[in-house]
Design brief:
Elements (H helix, E strand, L loop, with lengths): L8 H14 L17 E3 L7 H11 L3 E2 L7 H9 L7 H15 L4 E4 L6 H14 L5 E4 L7 H13 L5 H28 L8 H14 L4 H16 L10 E7 L13 H7 L2 E4 L4 H6 L3 H7 L12 H13 L4 E7 L3 H17 L3 E6 L5 H22 L1
Parallel strand pairs: 1-2, 1-3, 3-4, 5-6, 5-7, 7-8
Helix pairs in contact: 2-7, 2-8, 3-4, 4-5, 7-8, 7-9, 8-9, 13-14
């Protein structure tokens, strides 16, 4: 404050107000681990994968999973006020989640955040949280990857539980991946059909019941049984689906393209319009079954080199949607997401070559539902008119 004493009184007042605005809204509480209690582990909020996170913590790490309530405006404000303006919105969302997890008593925070700069954000978020006065342990999946899959798994597991039985934990780790795959497969069916249900909310009820069943799962057989029951239930839902519905593919970075909080429920808005929604970007396609060279070869006219993070999958997905005659594509990204900005000229080429419209959506913490609704409605109307002309 000494540096501003030479300023006029009005200017000093403005600076003081700005300094107060930037102060975190939280006190500097410290959470220390009680050795006599079970370890509480928390993930950040991410899409629909919380059952898989819970299974990983309870069945693989042999710890207690800390479930976070729905995010609120306060969650976002905490992340914004303790982050620089120049980081992406997912960073701010995750930081807010971590603070609320620590407030709720988490001992360990898990950061698996991604193939882009988010892969480096774990250390930065850990430093920010420690500067705020929190004591905790960070399980950062970006550490130890140079040791290979087995070495990485051992390091991650022992970070949380040094007494863990590695041979018993590894099959459970495979079951965690199976749950993520099953969640993605069920979600794909949901996106393609929920917009045409005769009874409003039927798909949502089955989806909610499915996730509840997965949260109770303790073994691979439970996961597979829950999946079979959910798929049977969704296939049994009566539909009023036209023979040639409007089909839109969603592409983009791994948070904004998938996470409902990050994209303001983009999927639900599209399905409410009666759209068949498709999205290749998910944990299965980007991590579990990801083969970048093969993907790149499938779109060789547009890709020569690995563009990094989520770029290859973005371009390949858009190319496939064009080949399959989709009516349009939506490209969703966070403000300042460099890899996805690099994709945009390639997407424009695909759009021109296939005469397939692409809507570019950039989200930040100020993006509003009203503005998004207006753009989506205009895009839908354009696709509808284009479809009518081609009949």
């Amino acid at each position: 404050m000494a540096d501003i004493l030479h300023l006029p009184e009005e200017a000093r007042s403005r600076v003081a107000v700005e300094e107060r605005r930037r102060e975190p809204k939280l006190g500097h509480r410290k959470f220390k681990r009680d050795r006599h209690k079970r370890i509480k582990v928390a993930f950040f909020r991410y899409c629909y994968y919380d059952p898989a996170f819970k299974f990983f913590v309870e069945q693989v790490l042999d710890a207690d999973f800390l479930t976070l309530p729905e995010a609120t405006k306060r969650t976002t404000e905490i992340g914004e006020q303790n982050s620089t303006d120049y980081v992406c919105t997912p960073f701010k969302h995750i930081l807010g989640d971590y603070v609320e997890a620590l407030e709720a008593g988490a001992d360990v925070l898990v950061q698996f955040g991604g193939p882009c700069r988010l892969g480096y954000y774990g250390e930065l978020q850990e430093a920010i949280l420690r500067d705020m006065g929190y004591e905790f342990q960070m399980l950062n999946f970006s550490r130890g990857i140079e040791q290979g899959a087995l070495g990485w798994a051992k390091q991650c597991l022992k970070t949380v539980n040094p007494d863990i039985n590695i041979p018993a934990a590894l099959p459970k780790l495979a079951a965690t991946a199976n749950m993520a795959v099953k969640l993605d497969e069920a979600r794909d069916f949901y996106l393609a059909n929920a917009g045409f249900e005769r009874e409003r909310g039927a798909f949502r009820r089955v989806w909610a019941s499915y996730r509840d069943a997965l949260r109770a799962a303790t073994a691979d057989r439970d996961i597979n049984e829950a999946f079979r029951e959910a798929m049977d239930a969704m296939r049994a839902i009566p539909l009023d689906k036209p023979a040639d519905p409007i089909r839109i593919g969603v592409v983009g970075e791994m948070f904004t393209a998938i996470d409902e909080r990050s994209n303001l429920e983009l999927d639900e808005k599209l399905m409410a319009m009666g759209v068949e929604v498709h999205r290749m970007m998910n944990l299965t396609n980007r991590f579990i079954r990801y083969n970048e060279p093969n993907l790149r070869r499938s779109a060789a006219d547009y890709l020569t080199y690995d563009m990094g993070p989520t770029s290859t999958l973005t371009v390949v997905a858009a190319h496939r949607y064009a080949q399959e005659g989709f009516d349009g594509v939506i490209h969703a990204k966070s403000a300042g997401c460099t890899p996805e900005i690099d994709c945009m000229p390639v997407l424009q080429r695909i759009s021109a070559d296939a005469a397939m419209p692409i809507l570019y959506l950039t989200y930040d913490s100020q993006t509003s539902d009203t503005g998004l609704d207006t753009r989506l409605e205009a895009f839908y109307d354009m696709l509808s008119m284009k479809k009518e002309k081609t009949k």
